[in-house]
Sequence to fold (969 residues):
Amino acid sequence: MGMNTDVGGGTATREAPASLSRKDFVSDQEVRWCPGCGDYAILAQVQRVMPTLGIPRENIVFISGIGCSSRFPYYMNTYGFHSIHGRAATLATGLKCARPELSVWVVTGDGDGLSIGGNHLIHALRRNVDLKILLFNNRIYGLTKGQYSPTSEFGKKTKSTPLGSIDYPINPVQVALAAEATFVARSFDRDLNHLAHIVERAAAHKGSAFVEIYQNCNIFNDHAFEHFTEKDVRDDRTVYLEHGKPLVFGRGGDKGIRLRGLHPEVVALGDGGSTEELLVHDERARDASLAYLLSHLDYPEYPIPLGVFRAIQRPTLETMMQTQVDQAVQKGGPRDLDALLRGRETWTVDA
Amino acid sequence: MTTDIRSGAVAGKPREALDAVTIRFAGDSGDGMQLTGTQFTSTSAVVGNDIATLPDFPAEIRAPAGSLPGVSGFQLHFSSRDIRTPGDEPDVLVAMNPAALKVNIGDLLEGGMVIVDTDAFTKGNLAKAGYDHNPLDSGELSRYRVFPVNLTTLNANALAETTLSKKERDRCRNLFALGLLYWLFDRPMEKTVRWIQDKFGKRPEVADANLRALRAGFNYADTVELFTTHYTVDRARLEPGTYRSITGNEATALGFIAAAHRAGKTLFYGSYPITPASDILHELSMHKEFGVKTFQAEDEIAAMGSAIGAAFGGAIALTGTSGPGLALKSEAIGLAVMTELPVVIVDVQRGGPSTGLPTKTEQADLLQAFFGRNGECPVPVVAPATPADCFSMALEAVRIATTYMTPVLYLSDGYLANGTEPWRFPTTESLPDLRVEHWTRAEGFMPYLRDQRTLARPWALPGTPGLEHRIGGLEKADITGNVCYDPDNHHHMVSLRAEKVARVAESLPPLEVFGPPTGRVLVVGWGGTHGAITSAVERLREEGLSVSSVHLRYLNPFQKELGEVLGGFDKVLVPEINLGQLRFLLRARYLVDALGYNRVRGKPLKIHELAGHIRSLV
Ligand code: SF4
Fold:
């Protein structure tokens, strides 16, 4: 298959692609999300990042389930598969196993990926199939017009919960960490550079990459994230995780997070205050405990963490599967179908 | 030559030739009856008999020892003639305990032999089997020829010098019984000796004990006065050629490996463990040297999804399951229909509904295969007729899937899956060429263009420059494949998908009638009932009755000749292990007043019962 430069699973075949641009990734299909939907921003960032990855366009495949977000593949001028509700990860796994050289992306939502398809998400992550999974979390069912989702807040009033939801929500990052995903990150639809950066990081990761993207559904769940994404409050209510750096946030970096026992606490840094006793982020820790602890930080008690929670290396499913095949071929010599059909024991009936 | 074991046992005649014998080995699940039966089977195959087997084991892995639900059986029919079924009624029953006797004695031919381990007929075991007395002493077995053997004691004595524990020694009882049967039916022991050496190579003391048990059983039968005769069953006069024995699940696995090999492609098998299909997964996972990739998915839906993904990537994509799993896969099968991708779905049918009878056979998923999906969702359906035919139909399933770009349902059943028969295996070069041409030209490419003959759309693979395209479960516009809600387009596409499947008939071999093409009664069957139906029809024709049969290996679409064949007979009878599913389809399709013969007992049809029923119709 020519040279094999592993870029997060998308293998560059032949020569590096001749300078692709954003436009090369825009399909001829009219985009049909509601005007103002956060999905537009995500699409734009993904289209911006794609040409920078060095992967030939024909080696990229986007696979989705069902829901607003799952229309995504139609708008990408790559190979695409709009599958059925919740099952995108299963198709992606089969495809990646059959064709390890492809760069396979999964686009899913909070209902698609965590409700009907929760099982598949967990298993794709634990197997470390080299898939890039983008989960658009808008905390609502959009396509079916406004029922609460597994990430909707407790008590939320929706069409199907007129008296308020009595389900406790699930935290996507925690699910991914519990499944021992090797790459777990979070971004949102309103910081375009951060989003592009996280998509790039996911693409560069070899193994299952899980990215939760907070996405505003301005029709059924408008303002769901505004309390921390609005520019004027963002610095105080979010914390950007950076590997090897202390957890500092707030306007002008005036706050930090330190650990007291197992309890994180917010401390004021004051004038040029020391960051020495602050918690230092380590996305490469083998053990996911720190990442899990960070995943619990939530507004209003804490700032909401954004960025890469975890990024570790571990052999991927499709590579190990291929290795077993290659080794069997090496050991067994040339494939002798006749010998296989003959089996161990035969007898002859004479004419 | 005698043809009946009942006339045997003449003193002073050491060897007597029989045409055919049916033995049933029965014991506790832990007694190794499946193994004993399998060994007897391969030995009989190697000496040249025709064989057919019926393993019959409980769904519980280890039901309480000695209990009725814990009884495991293995029936073997071996013959010097051409046989097609594991036999209606055993001539010989080997019962390792009272429960095994109780469960199986009713099936034994009157006058048949019963070999029992008297040591196992303890008070406790009798009670567990629900006996308040010992049937060996009560005279209730007087219709049979009972051979009591204190097998456990004899076996333990034979192994007295070994270092094994008592429990381990007792575990060799089945080999003692096998040795005894080898003497009784004049079989060589070499094959089993080799097998033991192979299997227990790492534990020489266990290998030694098993060999001792086997020989002790043989010698015991040879020296004591218990059996006055032993029997021979000559080589069968099968078609000349080289044979091996094979089960349906093995043949299925080999068939798909061969198909992928002939297509020059990777075989991808995504599956979730389920009885009685799991052996296909086990078998395929052993053959990675053929580029086979097996994936044990998290559930049935994921297994189907992974196969669709692999098909999109250009692999020979396969998933396997049984009825409950097929139900779970339905929605995803619809996706494969909509996206027109070649995936083969193997359903090894078992007793239903729901969990049903997991280890028993049935044919009740036919209508599910036809109709068990939302929307107008046609899928070609094929069904092997015998264990070895599983191989040929696997190749056919792949041919249809890749030629017509469609999912294909392959209906095996528990009886075929676990049954064994001799197989005159083919050579690689005699197999069909299944190479596929993928679309590669960017110019003029549309994802839903149609081949004029087959109506297949192009199989364009990711990785091909210039063919980037999107497919999915939403309705497609003809040719462009774009999402399309237009009413007339939908009607057109629904019709087109149906027509595409109908056109598969153009590629099918002509339907063969067993017997004259016209007459009084036509018996129509499908799947694993082939042996019973053909044997019954053959028997009736020998009686001079006007009966023919056809056995359908292609169920959707039917072969083109079927309508005409049905019209050539006064009566049409459809025997099935369901309540009349093929009959329903034939009546709907051909307006024929087909009659049913339906026995849904989790067991194969019996030749003599079926023959009796057909006779009553003529
Ligand atoms: S319903 Fe909400 S999520 Fe869906 S497209 Fe409209 S705004 Fe976006």
